[in-house]
Amino acid sequence: MNITEEVRKLDLPMGEYIVLGSGILGALGIREIGDIDLLVNPSVFDRLRADGWDYDEIEIEGQIREHLSRGDVEVYRDFWYGGHHPDPATLIADSYMIDGIPFLSLQKLSEIKRILARPKDLRDIELIDTYLSKKTVTSMTRNIFLLSMMSPLDERLRQTLAQEILRRGTKIAYISSSPQSGDRPYYQSTIADYAAISPDIHVDYFDLSDAFTDQMLAELSSYAAISLSGGNTFTFMDSARKRGLQTILEQYLANGGVLIGASAGSIMCTPSIELAKFGDENEVGMTDFSGFGFVDFEFHPHFTGEQVEREQLSEYQLVYGRDIYTCKNDAGLHVSDSGVEAFGDASKLMKK
Predict the structure, then answer these.
(1) CA-to-CA separations, 23 to 69, 116, 125, 253, in angstroms, rounded
(2) Whole-angstrom Cα distance, residue 31 to residue 121?
(3) Domain co-membership, 125 together with 163
(4) Strands 339-343 and 332-336
């Protein structure tokens, strides 16, 4: 079953549904699936029911859930599991895009299956963990810079950035964390930042609003480097998911592209963006904190070394167990297939 094509045939409105359950396992080729479960907004549910989809009510965990079906597709207007009742609108907003179709992310699916812990869930968890361990960028070319900010930069870092960018060309695609109006002041400052790296570099502006079509975003692959801006990490990731940016960047890295993240943009490249809560407000109410997973550690920009900050990071590390690299404002990391190289005052936070 080609799940993305089957869902596309339904012609459902974007932003009003998500493929639930194990659908993403089929979409990513992790295992075969037998049917497609969809969570939809109430208006879509009512329209499908009016269109003649089979309707019934089923009991799940002692509660009645309304259910529509047609062929291999099953549709729900609400969702709960193991005593948890996530907000459907939030799940839909936090979807992971594959070929233009919104799915529950692998990380969220794994979280749900760990709570349910049925034999079939445990089998799927093992498949997911195996897939993610192979995929965490060991399977793609890595040429990633993680920075606190674009300026000032450690001199050796500046030279390395210039070398890696100019090996591929002189054009950089700058992706803003949110749309900028007027003179686009943050974009203008980024132009100056890259001019300080090399006067030969030209920077073009992109953002993830509807002003930039999918065809325009597909042109990102032609740039020597892609630069992910700073800003609110949660807002940026929310927009990135809605536009399928992760898939675009995965393909870009696989083709040898240079990816540069600054502050929020660098945090998004890690397995989780939850660490951003120490600096950013979760303005979009995000509950799935999955990052792109292009590196296997977490990144904390703008590190000051203050005691409170160290204690926050240590407590976070005890909970999640991943390595954390801290980075002061002029410092950064270069992640390549050869490993991680630190520039300036950037270092791994040692576990207690």
Answers:
(1) 16, 17, 14, 26
(2) 13
(3) no
(4) antiparallel
Task: Give the closest residue to 285 by CA, choosing from 326, 217, 341, 232.
Answer: 232
Q: How many C-beta atoms lie closer than 10 Å to residue 58's C-beta? A: 11
Whether residues 229 and 326 share a domain: the answer is: yes
What's the CA dihedral at 208, 210, 211, 214 to 10 degrees? 70
CB–CB of 224/171 below 8 Å? yes
Q: 285: which DSSP letter?
A: -
Residues 114 and 228 in one domain: no
SS3 state at 252: helix
For residues 27-53, average pLDDT: 94
Contact 269, 144 (CB under 8 A): yes
Number of separate domains in the chain = 2
pLDDT in tens, 65-75: 999 999 999 99
Residue type, 287: T
Give the pLDDT confidence of 246-273 residue by residue, as tens digits: 999 998 998 889 999 999 999 999 999 9
Check whether residue 102 and residue 204 sit in a common domain: no
Q: Which residues face 339 on adjacent strands?
A: 336
CATH of the domain at 208: 3.40.50.880
Query: Which tokens go with 58?
Result: 């089923």
161 plus 76 within the same structural domain:
no
Determine the average pLDDT of the residues in 146-158: 95
Structural domain range at position 244: 143-349
